[in-house]
Design a protein that fits this description.
The protein has about 425 residues and is mainly beta. It is built from one helix and 37 strands. It starts with a strand and ends in a 6-residue tail after the last strand. It binds 2-acetamido-2-deoxy-beta-D-glucopyranose (NAG). 2-acetamido-2-deoxy-beta-D-glucopyranose binds near residues 248 and 294. InterPro entries: WD40/YVTN_repeat-like_dom_sf (IPR015943), WD40_PAC1 (IPR020472), WD40_repeat_CS (IPR019775), WD40_repeat_dom_sf (IPR036322), WD40_rpt (IPR001680).
Length: about 425
């Protein structure tokens, strides 16, 4: 008769009990994982099992892994293959990229959802919609926990603070707002960031969570404290500012403007002034966005002139012009290890480039309409793209092969991967 083990499962970090299982000694560790997924959460999280701090391999049996009757196993959430897209059908969708299945369709908005992002702790999703609201969704089951109402016009961007405790929203009503996640249950209080004279197109927290940047069509960017007090107005652009993105080391900010330039600013500490250190000139048309590589060494800018440009963040010199695309360059992404850059175009082309020299690496061919968004997975293995051709695609970053086509009922505006959790 096969011997059956009683297993006590608990969360490795909190020590909190999850459940008890009975499994035969020869069943594989994968059986523990399957039972966990069935009893605990849908496939939005993947799990790993540890015995005395050692990771147990899925293919081996309980007995082979040193598991015995009555043992307590520790469970951690491991890096899942989860992507988030927003679609013209007024939803955001969560996908398991390992099998291409749609796990959750987040319904509730009644106008297009142009932006969605994860909380860094992987618990929440925030969506920003033209219906004047942002919504916060529980990633474990897709329920809408809060609708953030109050903006007088469409919300174009919403981002969490690095500790996942706050959300900043940017709106066409010329304001941004900061929301405290913990107090959302006790009524909708928010700090209003007022002062811009035209649409706010983008807003985000600094890497230390202390500052918020806003970018506006009024040709300025502004820096605020995380309680909404204005710290500085960054003036100098002669056209609308489309994005204002902090460097990952928190020392700089780069603004991208319709005036065809980007500007790099040194973010002030204390009472100093935030000053422009470089103006990145060379593009022939409006910039869509600009941001830093993860190592804060390089800047990419994307332009309606059909090119992306790679710049040195050290001296503001242009290192390379990434192709001459046949149409508007709409999006770009650095791989998290800062080795690769991906650019995407309104003609459906997606290209990969080597970030150290800007030389062409390969084309990701497949989309038939404009590509609006491109992202790398945190482990640098995968690239996600979102297109007006009603698909998002998942590509192997090494070979450029298309691994999954995620079919949507309408154009796809954005794609993001779930952040890796520093558990
Ligand atoms: C991103 O940059 C940080 C800080 O330099 C570094 O610790 C981390 O390893 C980088 N991430 C990757 C994927 O290389």
């Amino acid at each position: 008769m096969a011997s059956v083990f009683l297993l006590h499962l608990r969360w490795a970090l909190s020590g909190e009990e999850i459940c008890d299982l009975r499994l035969e000694a020869h069943s594989p560790i994968a059986g523990v994982l399957a039972a966990l997924e069935a009893c605990k959460e849908p496939e939005t999280c993947q799990f790993s099992v540890l015995l005395d701090g050692l990771l147990l391999s899925e293919g081996r049996s309980l007995a082979e892994s040193g598991v015995f009757d009555g043992v307590t196993l520790d469970v951690v959430r491991s890096s899942p293959c989860i992507a988030l897209t927003t679609c013209a059908d007024c939803t955001a969708k969560v996908w398991n990229t390992a099998n291409g299945r749609c796990l959750l369709s987040l319904t509730g908005h009644n106008h297009l959802v142009g932006w969605a992002s994860f909380s860094p702790d992987g618990r929440w999703i925030v969506t920003a919609s033209a219906d004047c609201t942002a919504r916060v969704w529980d990633l474990s089951d897709g329920t809408c926990r809060w609708a953030l109402t109050g903006h007088g016009s469409g919300v174009c961007c919403a981002n969490f603070s690095p500790d996942s405790s706050k959300i900043v929203t940017a709106s066409h009503d010329a304001t941004a707002r900061i929301w405290m996640v913990d107090s959302l249950d006790c009524g909708l209080t928010s700090y209003r960031l007022e002062g811009h004279r035209a649409d706010v197109c983008h807003a985000m927290f600094s890497p230390d969570g202390l500052l918020v940047s806003t970018a506006s069509e009024d040709a300025t960017a502004r820096l605020w404290t995380n309680s909404g007090i204005l710290r500085s107005a960054l003036e100098g652009h002669s056209g609308g500012v489309e994005s204002a993105v902090f460097s990952p080391d928190g020392q700089y900010l780069v603004t991208a403007s319709l005036d065809s330039t980007a500007k790099v600013w040194r973010v002030a500490k204390g009472s100093e002034q935030t000053v422009c250190v470089f103006t990145l000139r060379g593009h022939g048309e409006s910039l869509g966005t600009s941001f830093f590589s993860n190592d804060s060494q390089k800047v990419i800018s994307v332009s309606d002139d059909g090119s992306g440009k790679l710049w040195s963040a050290e001296d503001g010199l242009c290192l390379a012009t990434l192709g001459k695309l046949r149409d508007i360059c709409s999006a770009a992404a650095f791989s998290p290890d800062s080795q690769l850059v991906a650019t995407a175009s309104h003609d459906g082309a997606v290209h990969l480039w080597r970030a150290h020299c800007g030389s062409w690496s390969q084309e990701l061919a497949g989309h038939s309409e404009a590509v609006f968004s491109v992202a790398f997975s945190p482990d640098c293995q995968f690239i996600g793209t979102a297109s007006d051709d009603s698909t998002a695609r998942i590509w192997c970053a090494q070979t450029g092969r298309c691994l999954r086509v995620l079919a949507h009922p309408g154009g796809v505006y954005s794609v993001k991967f779930v952040p890796s959790q520093r558990a």
